[in-house]
Design a protein that fits this description.
The protein is mainly α. The chain has one domain. It contains eleven helices and no strands. The longest helix is centred in the middle third of the chain and has 28 residues. The chain binds zinc ion. The site of zinc ion has 8 residues, from loops. Zinc ion binds next to loops.
């Protein structure tokens, strides 16, 4: 019961974040202030009443029309709010209440429920959950901007990247798959993982954008948007997860283009958001599927890699 109420509460926060991201995606490319003006109807300019501004429900009880001018309001607003709410709720059950059972090396506590991790705060687990909530939020904002065929503002992408590098430096336990023995200094393993994740994820799109520019003498905003978004995800999850998310994205993209829609109406960044959420929810499963050759911790440098079976991954105890 406590789990359910807490999850609903976090889901509601997620829906409010989604509501805010709608505002960010509308205002940022237009150079408007994100925080200082209350929401208004884009058609008639009337301010939206607080009771109609409730995420998802507001759109439902207005039946998708503005109260003042009767013009239809795009269902996209409600869909984004619902998606963010669902993501926060899902991650709460999978990650927050279980103390990270979905993560390599997890769970990070012996007993786990909302009581143990939220109401008697386990800050490591809360930090991990918040970190993943932030990357999903930043990515959704970028996806909405790309969906509108606008350029993702540098303010948004660079701030997200800097935040990821800062957190990697500050809280190593946010990175679960730091390469063992890659650099011998434990302090810089997480930041290096973040940098490698960002570089790996963005590289193909930067190369593609460069190639496009050389051939057609024009820049490709969509590819540059994709490069920034992939870099942000890579920086938040690290190298190995970033490789797997790219693979998931590729599968989603092929399925979407070949089976669902031939034309390009959904932004590839929306698919990246879905791939990232899927990977967060099933992180440990994906990690154990693909990490079969790996060192134990403390194996001397230069020792041959050994087959460790399908179920193994690099373990880092919480706080290490
Ligand atoms: Zn209106």
């Amino acid at each position: 019961m406590l789990d359910f109420v807490t999850a609903l509460w976090l889901g509601f926060i997620g829906a409010c974040v989604g509501s805010f991201l709608n505002v960010v995606a509308y205002r940022m490319p237009r150079g408007m202030s994100v925080v200082w003006k209350p929401s208004h109807c884009p058609n008639c300019g009337h301010a939206i009443r607080p009771r109609d501004n409730v995420p998802v429900l507001g759109w439902l009880w207005l039946r998708g029309r503005c109260r003042d001018c009767g013009q239809p309001i795009s269902p996209r607003y409600a869909i984004v709010e619902a998606a963010m709410g669902a993501a926060f709720l899902l991650l709460a059950y999978r990650e927050l209440f279980t103390a990270g059972t979905n993560l390599p090396g997890g769970p990070f506590a012996d007993v786990a429920s909302a009581l143990d991790t939220v109401w008697n705060p386990n800050w490591i687990v809360i930090r991990i959950y918040a970190y993943h909530a932030i990357v999903l939020s930043a990515l959704m904002a970028m996806a909405l901007i790309d969906q509108d065929r606008e350029r993702v503002p540098l303010k948004l992408s660079v701030t997200s990247l800097i935040l990821a590098f800062f957190c990697a430096w500050q809280w190593r336990h946010l990175y679960f798959e730091r390469a063992p023995g890659f650099f011998r200094i434990p302090e810089i393993k997480a930041p290096v993982d973040a940098v490698l994740g960002a570089a790996w994820a963005a590289a193909p799109w930067i190369i593609a954008a460069g190639y496009w520019r050389l051939r057609n003498q024009q820049s490709s905003e969509r590819l540059i948007n994709l490069a920034w978004a992939a870099a942000v995800v890579g920086a938040f999850v690290g190298l190995r997860a970033s490789v797997r998310i790219t693979a998931l994205w590729l599968i989603a993209y092929i399925v979407y283009r070949l089976i669902i829609r031939k034309n390009n109406s959904v932004s590839p960044l929306v698919l990246l958001w879905l791939a990232t959420l899927t990977h967060l929810v099933f992180w440990k499963t994906f990690a154990s599927l693909l990490t079969c050759y790996t060192h134990n911790r403390g194996t001397p440098r230069g020792a041959p890699l050994r087959w460790r079976g399908w179920q193994t991954h690099t373990h880092y105890p919480a706080g290490a």
